[in-house]
Amino acid sequence: MNVTFRQLRVFEAVAQELSFTRAADTLHITQPAVSMQIKQLEGAVGLPLFEQVGKKTYLTEAGRELHTYNRRVIQLLEEADDVIQAMKGIQRGRLRVSVASTANQFASRLLASFVHRHPGVSFSLDVTNREALLNQLAHNDCDLAIMGKPPDDEDLQSEAFLQNPLVMIGPRNHPLSKEKNIPVERLADACFVVRESGSGTRSAAERFFAEREVNFSPGIEMTSNEAIKQAVEAGLGLAVVSIHTLELELETKRLAILDVEGFPIERHWYLVHRCGKRLTPVGTAFREYVLAEAKHYASVPNPG
Ligand code: PGA
Q: Is the pLDDT of residue 120 over 60?
């Protein structure tokens, strides 16, 4: 059936009003224009849709059948329109955020408070390491990422929004925990518990030692910051971690931050998205929220 949406709209108006003149008024078009659209629709359907008895207009049987379906088509289109309109605002819509595992603690709190303000929005949060985040951005699998400084890439737009100091930690009673300005050379033979390769924290630590030409020997490798902290506490080695992963451990004094020369390693958190990507209103609102509010959700604990 080769019909146009305009014909269906006109048909709906005539079927409701049962008058070509009133339908024309409702649609703000002329009565001959209404008659023309209905004539074309009847031609496409192959049956008359209205009949005239005396001065009154009635739907034929074919007209009644078509009217039932037509209502459903129009309702569905109105529903689709509602959803699209809502997506233009920030009440509805979808946002895919991916964050570096190291940023997980504060990023989850930040996202939770944003979600409370926009309950109609559906969010997905993926927590993974730097390498995987860069892959997701390249394949358009996330709208926004929170991560360490991305590589210079003209396809990525990034904004720094928060400091991310990396510190060296040891067990609470480690012999170096009382010393000040420990020369990094003294750590050349230390055993380190490290994140998997692909982690931004790990590559920053490796870079730090390489720049100073000091041996850095990754010992045990672990994929989670939580596991690393427990391993350090248990005496399996030292580690370089973001201070944002240490809130609880420093409060309860379960770990010590070692005062090593050159530490903390200065890093920042960046909000990153593809340059070509047009952020939806929800994406834009989240971006603004992160830039303005992140500092309140990522308290940097006092290392002392
Ligand atoms: P990571 O990321 O969780 O992969 O170590 C943190 C960073 O890039 O600094």
A: yes
